[in-house]
Amino acid sequence: MTGFSPSGERFGITVTSFNSLSLDPPLILWSLGREGGSFACFQAGTPFAVNVLSAGQKDLAERFARVGIPKFAGVAIEEGLDGTPLISGASAYFECVVEARYPGGDHDIIVGRVRRLFNIGKDPLLFYRGALRPLV
Ligand SMILES: Cc1cc2nc3c(=O)[nH]c(=O)nc-3n(C[C@H](O)[C@H](O)[C@H](O)COP(=O)(O)O)c2cc1C
């Protein structure tokens, strides 16, 4: 997930909890950990993007899972709707706004309304049996 914090800083976070929710209207959901630095982000109405990383982007998945580093240093990005950073070379992008947010134990459930979708068609990166791997 990529977007902007309430103070206007770019942020990015690796997640695997991404899922489809609704076709009409087009909604997706994922869960945001309470302990993470991004917990204050994703208030209702906030734009953000789902970047489905491609098979060769394991290093970026690891980078965006780390705490306290400048996550975007040296990362090629393009600007999406409202200037939302989109990570270049990804497999697909869902450009969203936060539709709703619900408590869910030690995470919050973030519901995003999809405004625009790009399917680039590259093979995706998977998280399977505890490791980041290509499809084959
Ligand atoms: C494979 C993988 C999947 C993850 N999935 C999630 C997730 O679904 N939700 C979440 O909040 N954090 C998830 N994380 C952890 C965040 O990426 C990590 O806590 C990150 O540092 C948070 O960034 P922040 O502290 O800048 O918010 C995952 C990490 C990895 C390596």
How would you characterize this protein structure?
This protein is mostly beta strands. It has one domain: Pnp Oxidase, Chain A (Roll). The protein has one helix at residues 58-63, and strands at 2-4, 10-12, 19-22, 27-33, 47-52, 77-79, 85-87, 92-104, 107-119, 125-128, 131-134. A seven-stranded antiparallel sheet has the order 2-1-5-8-9-4-3, with no helix packed on it. A two-stranded antiparallel sheet has the order 6-7. It has a two-stranded antiparallel sheet with strand order 10-11. A hairpin with a 2-residue loop joins strand 8 and strand 9 (107-119). Flavin mononucleotide binds at residues 11, 13-17, 30-33, 36-38, 65-67, 127.
